[in-house]
Amino acid sequence: MKRTALYSIAIVLFATALSQTSKGAPPFLPTKSAGANQGEAVQWQTNLHSAHKIATTENKPMLVVFGADWCHFCKKLEKETLTSPEISKYVNDSFVAVHLDADTDKKAAEILNVTGLPCTIVLSPKADLLGRIDGYYTPGPFYQKLAEAKQKHQVVQRTSITK
């Protein structure tokens, strides 16, 4: 079975699991971005099914960030990287951002093979794996990895248009 087909199956299972378990923002998700005074905060979705609909409608890749309340580096990623005005603007402009708690959304974490935290996964609206960021990164390297995933999305789009 092709990798795309596996991820398509995964997204369906993932969305089903989340629609049954997600009850709001994960406890580690800050309600107000530390960088909000200098720019906009990331516009987080907490339900993968809703995020997938938005991603499909807007033809944007999904940025899925897994964290946990107990995870030091998850909180560090939140405070130092995801609240950076440049990162939050880029994420809002280029992705549909989804924030999930790995402890609460265990099935989703299992399907996407999340073995360590924080873990950031970028999926196309058709569930193609565009990128994976394991661990904590400062804003510069994190931005570079997001830009690489965005570029892959553009390649996937061009390829699907020509077929």
* Largest sheet strand order: 2-1-3-4
Measured distance between first and last alpha carbons: 19 Å
Summarize the amount of helix as a percent range.
40-55%
Number of strands: 4
CATH class: Alpha Beta
Structural class: alpha+beta
Q: What gyration radius follows from the Cα positions, in whole Å?
A: 15 Å
Shape verdict: globular
Largest sheet: 4 strands, mixed
Count of the separate structural domains: 1
Along the chain, the helix and strand elements come as HHEHHEHEEH
Low-confidence stretches: 17-38
Number of discrete helical segments: 6
Mean pLDDT rating: 83
Give the DSSP E fraction (strand runs of 2 or more residues): 5-15%
CATH architecture: 3-Layer(aba) Sandwich
CATH superfamily: Glutaredoxin
CATH topology: Glutaredoxin
Protein name: Thiol:disulfide interchange protein
Signal peptide: 1-24
Pfam families: Thioredoxin_2
Organism: Thalassoglobus neptunius
Please describe what this structure looks like.
- By secondary structure, the chain is of the alpha+beta class.
- Helix content is 50%, strand content 14%.
- Strand 3 (119-123) and strand 4 form a beta hairpin.
- It is globular, with a radius of gyration of 15 Å.
- The protein starts with a helix and ends with a helix.
